[in-house]
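[job 0412] stage=fold_complex status=start
inputs:
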Amino acid sequence: MNYVPTKAHRYFIWLHIKNLILIRYRGAYLGLMWIILEPLMYLLILGFVFATFNKAPIKEYVLYLFSGLIPWQFLERAVLSMTDSITQNAVFIRRIRTPYIYFPLIQLGVAFVDFIIAFSILLLFFLLYRAEWHIPMVVLPLSIMAWMIIVAGLGILLAVLFIFFQDIKPIIQMGLMLLLFTSTIFFKPDVFYGDSVKLKILQYDPVCYWANLFQKPIFYGIWPDLTDWIVCLMSGLILLSAALMLYYKLKDKFYYYV
Amino acid sequence: MAVAIKLNNITVEFKKPTLGNHTLKNNIYYFITGKKISTFKAIDQLSLIINEKETIGIIGSNGAGKTTLLRIIAQIIVPKSGSVKIFKRVIPLLELGIGFHPELSGRENCYLAGALLDFTPKEIDLRLNRIIDFSGIHSFIDAPVKTYSSGMFARLAFSLATEVDPEIFLVDEIISVGDESFQRKCILRIQKMIKKGITTIFVSHNLDFLVTQCSRLIWIEHGKIMMDGAAVEVAHRYRYQQRLLN
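[job 0412] stage=fold_complex status=done
writing structure:
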């Protein structure tokens, strides 16, 4: 079995990602400017609203929120678009021999481009607020790689499951929302200190460890500790191996379900 | 003559489509009640050998399993049982415009859909002028394909799809594209491919076309081969049976 895409197929994946991004804003009044404006406005609104709710200084809270929310948004957008990507492309699948896995990978690529743009906005805020650049921030490329493994694993796994259970998207959306609001992305950990049950939940919530890879170097200026890396890499690798195993085991049956 | 395609005892079984078949809710329902979704065999223990350089037509009534058979040869469907051996590079032309995005221009679509047919951008660069010339839509090549008429769309898609160099070429009911003069161009192009020795398999309801182009016809009903032989003979028997049924 050939697992490596041909040069033409790699070109197809790249071209598809590029086209999906360009088409999104083609014909819009401000065109490609929306690629930057959309996440900028979204982050600004959320930043100001939640800073007010949390009664926190805007500068401090915005940097805290963005350092966790931007990677989370990448995960959420990628996973949701990857989930139904194979069934959405049934027209390809039924008429030309295309490896099914290309379609979740294309959506992963689109979400990754959005993430890089949103991440650049975070760096822009760093400049605007004249925040301190911490040395542990050099670890961020590794944090991004760890998140890529987690997102790819979760996205492919759900894309395979969705073929057989095509009504699970709302369940996935609710699950992601639950993970988000039980984590330390919107709320700083000190909010939970008075409640032992909530603290226990935080201890077992993998999202807190995932978020630490960004929040610790960007906001706290410290290195993520060994537990953070172990939880992230182990969860990512388990998800990715399970996803690929399931994909290669079931891919011959996909045609009958899409 | 060397074998190009060898199918041995293949069976393809589909679940009868109903609304919400593949949902968690229905799966739980079927699990609890112990009921099973009924199935039907689109291909039933079919064996077939096709040699290199043969030109074959597949005929049969609607729902006989012709397109399913073509999709098995194109390696799009993996059968439930039996073995499929394809010894050459297959290019399926099951529908025109696969891989085309309506928002992209004709030129952009040539690169996108071309990549699906295994063309690198350099290979498309080399062929692009020929594709545009053959399609005859020079002045619209940079317009979004959603603005094309169905004829223009089909012309561009056919030009691109037949620019490949297949060793086995599968064609499913797509000869009637564009206007009459373009249809003639299409047939001439396919005849050229046949002359080059490309193994070609047509699925069509146009018996006259098949008899003139093919040396061998395979008649399929209910997923089984009813008759396989010289084109004129099979077409005669098929017509006779159709007359009896009507």
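[job 0412] summary: The mean pLDDT of chain B is 89.
[job 0412] exit 0
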